[in-house]
Amino acid sequence: MQHLDDGLLHALVDGEVPSSELGPIQAHLASCADCRVRLDEARAMAGESNALIELIEVPASSAPAPLPAPRRRPAAWIKPLALAASLGLAVAIGYAGGARQGEVFVPAALRVDTLYLSEDGAAHRQESSEEAARPATVPAPASAAEQSDEQARSRREAPREAESREAEADQAAAPAAPSPAVERARSDSMAERKQSSQYRLDEREAAGRVGARQAPAPQPARDFVGRVANVLTDSALKRANNEGAAKSLAAAPQARLEQAVTTLAVTPISFTEAVALLGGQLKLIEGMVPARLESSGTAVRVVYVLERGELILQQRREADSVSVELIGPALSPDSLAKLRQKIR
Amino acid sequence: MSSFLADLFTQYHASLVRVIYRRTGDRDQAEEIAQEVFARAAAAPPRNPRPWLFAVALNLIREEGRTRSRRGRLLQLYQEEGPRQAAPPDHELERSERANMVRAALDTLTPRDREALLLKAEGFNYDEIAAALGLAKGAIGTTLARARRRLVEACRAQEMEANRNAAS
Q1: What number is the ipTM of this complex?
Q2: Residue A324: is its pLDDT beyond 80?
Q3: DSSP string, A192-250
Q4: Strand pairing class (A310-317; A267-268)
Q5: In angstroms, rounded to a whole number, what is the distance separating the alpha carbons of residues B43 and A28?
Q6: Would you state the pLDDT for residue A214?
Q7: Strand pairing class (A292-296; A299-305)
Q8: In the prediction, which pLDDT does A175 show?
Q9: CB proximity B142 to A under 8 Å
Q10: Mutation test of the interface with chain B: which of A52, A61, A117, choosing the one with the most B Cβ atoms within 10 A?
Q11: How far is A42 from chain B (nearest CA, A)?
Q12: Half-sphere exposure (CA, 13 Å, Cβ side) for B14?
């Protein structure tokens, strides 16, 4: 047999030669000292080149590139105005109906189921309240928390939102200063969130979770926001006590339960950040392609575009699980059930 | 499809960024290219993802023509940070110097040889390297043999030059 060429020697070093071909090669090596020396050199060279390449370490990320800026949507001023009007009316009805001070009527038609996914992947559905609408008691108003960027944004928006918006206390990621494009996208996103924010109120009431710190809302709506926030807090506490509720609620510290739902801060994020925020457990809807990823404090929002609007798979890392909420346009029970099954 | 993409991301993102970074020397650019690769995977899920992801990444690099050397960049960054930050320990400087040396040595290789070496360093087998680079499997051993020899020789030459300069 002729001497072994360099390619074969390196293939031997890398374990790439099929065992069926090793016989003649081993026989040659046994009888050829030169090839044995060259094999040793190949082995040393392979090791040295690997060691050299491993010296090149990826430095810490400065600012990971986010996903492309979300598509701009026309500001739907009319929808939030209509919703604000309806909520205002609902509050008025609640008060006029002789409810105790601070009770708020929450329409049932806007409820959306909330799902909690535990570590084993089992989906635990947290049903909305059985009652079509029930008043909730209101303790003392919660204190406002500081969130200057949300305050500035809410002031920029012309229609005063009557409903609550979320604000997260913690920023797990540290996004770069928002560019104009991000700000525009954020304000557009705010308009859309008004449509779904009412769903979120009901979700949190049903699920007994309140996740966000109260942020300063526009002055005219602040009192209402505070009252709604406390409604959710109180109902969350009651549900925890009475029903031995979902472990995400049971595990939530009191401080977190007392956070009010007011302003939602949304920032476009990358896959990297999303996975990092959720501890490597990013949930997606199988068969659908996300339009974008966003963060809201520690929550990750996977946004899908449907014909009727945006469907948001909002998820947050809990103690030992990932809580998942579906936020979006009203869907039939069948559609909702199908979506739930596809969450992976 | 989405869960497939999430699994793909979890499995390969760090490795992809590392290969791209070692190829280009630009951390942020590596992240951007990796993002683009996964976006393309989302649009058209590959059947054999590992070599596909890296093949797309390497093609993107070639398209952007990023072959500039980063020699001395880390040292320059340390200098620009100035009095606000303490000087890095000697061993870190030495390591970064050596990394720059390796990058410069890699730049002396042909693109194919360099890419084969980087993929092998990520644990690719010959089938995967062949698929990623569009080469015959039988050519990978020879490609790696040549690439390894040139890298080691280039690094040794730089070390000798550095020692000569230090001695003079």
Answers
A1: 0.80
A2: yes
A3: HHHHHHHHHHHHHHHHT-------PPPHHHHHHHHHHHHHHHHHHHHHHHHH---HHHH
A4: unpaired
A5: 51
A6: 45
A7: antiparallel
A8: 44
A9: yes
A10: A52
A11: 8
A12: 9
pLDDT averaged over every residue in chain A:
63
Of A143-152, A165-174, B50-59, which one has max mean pLDDT? B50-59
Distances, alpha carbon B28 to alpha carbons A14, B25, B60, in Å: 32, 9, 14
pLDDT mean over A314-320: 82
Task: Give me the amino acid identity at A101.
Answer: Q
Residue contact B151–A287, C-beta within 8 A: no
Q: Which amino acid is at B122?
A: E
Is A190 in contact with A265 (CB distance < 8 Å)?
Answer: no
Q: Which two tokens stand for residue B61?
A: 């690099």
Alpha helix locations (H) across chain A? 6-13, 22-31, 33-54, 78-96, 148-156, 180-207, 219-243, 247-250, 254-257, 271-277, 333-342
Q: Rounded CA gap, B159 and B20, in Å?
A: 25
As a whole number of angstroms, the distance between CA A146 and CA A132 comes to 35
Q: What is the pTM of this model?
A: 0.45
Residue A51 contacts B where some CB pair is shorter than 8 Å:
no
Residue A225 clears pLDDT 60, i.e. is over it: no
Q: Which of A93-107, A270-284, B40-54 has the highest mean pLDDT?
A: B40-54
> What is the arrangement of strands in the sheet containing A123-126, beginning at the earlier edge strand?
A123-126, A114-117, A322-327, A310-317, A299-305, A292-296, A267-268
User: Chain centroid to CA B126: how far?
Assistant: 18
Residue A313 has pLDDT above 80, yes or no: yes
Alpha-carbon distances of A268 from A134, A173, A192, A310, rounded to whole Å: 36, 11, 15, 15
* Chain B residue at shortest CA distance from A53: B102
Instruction: Give the residue from A311, A245, A319 showing the smallest Cα distance to A281.
Output: A319
